[in-house]
Amino acid sequence: MTKKLKKRLLRILLGAALFVAAVAVDGKWSGVYADAGLIAFLAAFLVCGGDVIKKAAMNITKGQIFDENFLMTVATVGAFLVGEYPEGVAVMLFYQVGEWFQSYAVNKSRKSIRELMNIRPDYANVCRDGGLLTVDPGEVKPGELIVVKPGERIPLDGTIEKGSTALDTMELTGESLPREAGEGDSVISGCVNQSAVIEVRVTKEFGESTVSRILELVENAGSRKSESENFISKFARYYTPVVVGLAALLAVIPPLATGGDWYTWIYRALSFLVVSCPCALVISIPLSFFGGLGGASRAGILIKGSNYLEALSKAEIVVMDKTGTLTKGNFAVSRIVPKAGEAETLLELTAYAESGSNHPISRSLQQAYGEEIDRSRIKQMEETAGFGVSAVIDGRKVLAGNLRYLEQNGIACAKAPEIGTVVYTACDGAYLGYIVIADELKPDAAEAVRRLKDGGIQDIVMLTGDRKETAEAVAKEIGIDHVYAELLPGDKVDRMEELLSQKSPGGKLVFVGDGMNDAPVLARSDIGIAMGGLGSDAAIEAADVVIMTDEPSKIARAMEISRRTLVIVKQNIIFAIGVKGLILILAACGIASMWTAVFGDVGVAVIAILNAMRALKA
To answer: 233-278: per-residue pLDDT in tens?
Structure first.
């Protein structure tokens, strides 16, 4: 509990003690002590409500008249003026109790967000002038070498130059299993080095590091308000002056019109003011969204604002990229099919021919070959973009590429029946065979699609630049019904426009990509979700939601959190408006007392706040 909360709690306890004492002495003494009860009530009132009255006065001087401080001040001072001292003190006392619960709930929600702030590193061990200096991470420049010991947090993004270790990414991704990293692997700031000393070559300044970008994202998430929050803010802005006006009319018109008792109608008007305070809505709705954002961040899902959290609950169409989203994006040789000769010879010649490219296909061929490429064996290498490569290897002309490439060069070969990327190879005009390179599905890809459908998302679409046969095979395996393949980036945008026209007016279209090459589509969608945001600048910048791991099942998790948060918001709105509306009518009719009004205000607020706190566990 913070000092501020403790201080407010002490004030409440002192005010409650004075209130009990005032009730005990009220009317019991006479003579010079006859006003002892009033004095005790005033003391209790000032202890409980002094800060409220002060805030109301300061806000009036700023032109901000109609807020809950003004309502509470008018209602309680009015109660004293008509001689209802206990009610006046009780209203202020229980209002402070409600404010304490509100502050406690907000503090708990902020604590869940602040837990993520623990990823901020405090220092870096940098190698300078032949020694090791401990400096602020902001003083380290790209290119410098830092040392990270076991148990220390990696302070900056970089590449491991020496050593291997296990990295704890729990606070970044929500995943408890450590990640192994060795020489040549990239590491990001915020992870904890678990097992061994490593030396890391820094690649980014601290201000551009992953941890800085994540912290900035989380800190700014609360600035983007949801439609519900904006509505409640506007509602409170007009609602409060209206109820003050109605209370004034209730206090004046009936006794003037009927010659009735002024005390009765003023008392009803004061009760009306007490119950009309909109704090149950004004506080609990933002608190619900804040809790949802905190719960999502603990699950490794960064949502850039409550507006996006609310929009996720309205998702109707989910569009997914294939490579890097549903598949690992790691191409590997899955089959070698020689027409003549040995598979080893086919793989060797194909790997040599493709060795001049940085394409994933080339890397997978060289990884499968497993031996160092002898550049002296290669002559006259030439690449035809989108088709294949030719090279003279050991004096023999080798062609490697797609089926059309070999056919254009007059080499007849049959189309391979396998699904995947197929590299056909020929040597000196003779067809040698083909090699199949396939991208592996992520383990939870099928689960992600199933959970999305279980959550009510029936229209799930795959957009990909890959071959139609490959895309359809992947879609069939994981349960996606609609596939658009062999698309260029511009084609993806065109398809997105078509899909946007198919959703209902209030529905949302979600696009899920890897955040690298899908920026145009991410920007065009209603909600852009970037997969694998861990260490990806493009993902954090381009998307509205960032999944910090490579698990597509967390897309469904984000939507589940969104729907749960919106259910809590609607519960609070219906409950608060319903109970307050009923007690407002009863107060105006003289059926509800000021004590009932206290429950209608403070009781409803406390219940709504406690309900909002459930969003933290979303």
So the answer is: 677 677 778 878 888 888 888 888 877 678 888 888 888 877 777 7
Q: Using one digit for the tens of pLDDT, what is the confidence trace for 72-114?
A: 788 788 878 777 788 778 878 877 877 787 677 666 656 655 5
Any idea where the domains of the chain sit in the sequence? 3-114+222-289+564-617, 122-155+157-203, 301-326+442-548, 328-440
573 Cβ contact list (under 8 Å, min separation 6): 228, 232, 281, 285
Instruction: DSSP for 248-301, please give it.
Output: HHHHHHHHHHH---HHHHHHHHHHHHHHH-THHHHHHHHHHHHHHHHHHHHTTE
Question: How far apart, in whole angstroms, are the C-alpha atoms of residue 134 and residue 122?
Answer: 10
Q: How far apart are CA 609 and CA 386, in angstroms?
A: 59
CB 296 within 8 A of CB 584: no
User: Quick check: 410 pLDDT over 50?
Assistant: yes
439 a catalytic residue = no
pLDDT the model gives residue 352 = 92
**Residue among 168, 321, 466, 526 flagged as catalytic:** 321
pLDDT band, very low/low/confident/very high, at 179 (cuts 50, 70, 90): confident
The CATH number of 328-440, from 3.40.50.2300, 3.30.70.20, 3.40.1110.10, 1.10.1740.10, is 3.40.1110.10
Closest CA to 320 of 151, 536, 503, 482: 482
**What span, in angstroms and rounded, lies between the C-alpha atoms of 164 and 404?**
45
As a whole number of angstroms, the distance between CA 135 and CA 259 comes to 80
Share of the chain above pLDDT 70, in %: 86
Into which CATH architecture does domain 301-326+442-548 fall? 3-Layer(aba) Sandwich (3.40)
